[in-house]
Amino acid sequence: MYHVEFPGMGLSLTVDPVAFSIGSFQVYWYGIIIGIGFLLALMFALKSLKRFGVGSDGFIDCVLVGLIFGIIGARLYYVIFKWDYYSQHLNELFAIHNGGLAIYGGVIGGLAAACIVAKIKKLPILAILDIGVMGFLIGQGLGRWGNFFNQEAFGTPTDLPWRMVSENTDGIGVHPCFFYESVWCLLGFALLYLFSRKWRKYDGQIFLLYLVWYGAERMLVEGLRTDSLYTPFLGLRVSQILAALTMIIGIVLLIVFRKRTVKSADRILQPAADSVNVSNTLPKTESAAAESENTAAKAESAAAEGKNTAAKAESVAAESENTAAKTESAAAESENTAAKAESAAAEGENTAAKSKTENGGEQ
What we know:
The chain is mainly alpha-helical. It has 2 domains: 261 residues, no CATH class; 85 residues. A two-stranded antiparallel ribbon has the order 1-2. The radius of gyration is 52 Å and the shape is rod-shaped.
């Protein structure tokens, strides 16, 4: 139980890290808040799949594997850099309900595992990273309030109006670093969501913007915290080093890929548009085919009529030839008859001449 005050704002409240108990089993607000953040992030991700061109098949596998390895990575990261303590308290290695989860370890472990599953499932890895980091911002923005209930992740002394005082701060006003990061992450989610709706050009662009956005905040706020993890050499804050590196990498890659315009959603939507065009074309094609069939039928009918006409013409020609032959035969017969008539006339004349001769002789 903690008595927390914000003297400059006139606020005072009592905070119990334990939400409720079931027998001897205690349920902490830290776990509940992280669970709520995870569910909200998952809901957002599932609603965003289509817009980012990611199929739902296999995505849940990415989420579940990413969640498991995210928790493992967060705890492992924290324990490694606090090994001086945990090597003497091995029984506390898995006591995550008391805190001790490093965000960067969770991000690295979760994203790495999710990417491996995405590769196996043949999902667009960069698009999944875009969705994943916006989900992280939701989870981080809410999850930091778990630090508030555990009264951890606060900063150095300050006299600012929003300074926080509790038993864990030894009664001294300190920076509420959990609050700074919560506001920064939720604001970052809102801005990246808006960017993804209006200006996103390629898969991975939101991920790179996340590296810059979160890196800038963490590099600054980590410098205020009193519970930072340090490197075993030079005494540098681990999170500040990672924040600076990721921010620089993000800026460089954003510049390098500034002209890139490749999105998985485009590859999915284009075939769909082509299908719509094909479906609209099919009725026209069927109509044209029907018209072609009608034209062909008419052509066959005309050809049949042409054949009938040709047959009739041939019949008429044959009849004409027969008539001509008959005419020629009749003409030949007429000529024969005329010849016979002329022959008969000649015989008649000869007979008449003979008759005159005979009559003259008799006289």
